[in-house]
Amino acid sequence: MFKYLEPNKIFSITSKAPKYVFIVFIVVLTIGLLESLVLSPEDYKQSHSVRIMYVHVPAAWITLGIFSTITLLSIIGYIFKFKNFFLISKSLAPSGFIFNIIALVTGSIWGKPTWGTWWAWDARITSMLILLMFYGLYLLAWRIYQDREQVFKITSMITILGIINVPIIKYSVDWWNTLHQPASINILSKSSIHSSMLFPLLIMTAAFALFSLLIFLMKYNTELIKIKNKGLDRL
Amino acid sequence: MINELINMNGYGIYVWSAFIFTLLNFILLYAVIKIQYAKEKKKFITKFGSLTSEKASFAKSQSINREILSNISNI
User: Fold this and answer.
1) pLDDT at B4 (0 to 100)
2) Is the N end or the C end of chain A the one with fewer CB atoms within 10 Å?
3) By C-alpha distance, which of A10, A8, A16 is closest to A218?
4) Does the pLDDT at position A97 exceed 90?
């Protein structure tokens, strides 16, 4: 099955896809912004500050999703020696890193009107900051190490250590007394968020996911060309 | 209507700064990745151009190289 994922076979798709993904992303983002800034209602307690949720929550979801994916791909890639999985992981990391920053900064902006402070060393916020450090280490490792085997090993270790932090982020609001509110959306049980707010939240999540896909495709194509450049040097 | 949208009961400064920060990050990341892509592509074309005809035809025998050359302005 893995042979169908070989760069030579999928480049014809990944090189053409970005322009279509870009168009869909712009359309979905426009709808999302209209919904979240204009059409969705204000909260009875938080008033209009609740609108920050429409950028903060999707960013947090996606950064966690990307880190989990990177870890899974790195482990599988390391066990089965499937190098393309490392290339996919490397290409996913920049958008995961940026979404982590967005989640932290927009959370901080939201914290000021709701908690009265920009920052607190709260379990959720601190564990998100630790995740950002793991993203930073992961990206740095790709820059520092030139030897492929070594970089595969180091980045896999970073992701395995970092993934321990992901359930801590998820359950930090249940395990400890935190300023951060518990989850309002549950897949397994009834969500406490009204559909008028859930809809824009899902649209914005889709827009952010499309942006991640766009960046991933562009980065993946760049990495492939980089490899081919090295190949031309060897000719 | 417009004033209400901007002020948002006094929360406008927080809401707009969060959205603007997000969009600026999107633009910045997109620009950085696009520049990296253009740079690598340019490097590839230069290197390909400097190959001897024998080496160039060998390189062209690889489908991915043909794809790169045919998708020069795709992103």
Assistant:
1) 84
2) N
3) A16
4) yes
Q: What is the C-alpha to C-alpha distance for residues A202 and A193, in angstroms, rounded to an integer?
A: 12
Answer whether residue B54 is part of any domain. Answer: yes
Question: Cα torsion at A177, A178, A179, A185 (round to 10°)?
Answer: -110
Alpha-carbon distance of A139 to B28, in angstroms, equals 17
Q: Does the residue B29 lie in any domain?
A: yes
Distance CA A51, CA A197 (A): 9
Per-residue pLDDT reduced to its tens digit, A36-68: 999 998 888 888 999 999 999 999 999 999 999
Contacts of A105 in chain B (CB under 8 A): 18, 21
Handedness of CA A218, A25, B19, A61 (dihedral sign): negative
Query: Between chain A and chain B, how many beta carbons pairs sit less than 8 Å apart?
Result: 121
Q: Which candidate from A12, A55, A226 shows the least CB-CB separation from B22?
A: A55
Across the interface, whether the CB atoms of B18 and A229 are under 8 A apart is answered: no
**Residue A68: inside a domain, yes or no?**
yes
Domain range for B59 is 2-70
Reading the block at residue A24, the tokens are 């869909």
Closest CA to A55 of A98, A126, A103, A100: A103
Cβ proximity of A182 and A173 under 8 Å: yes
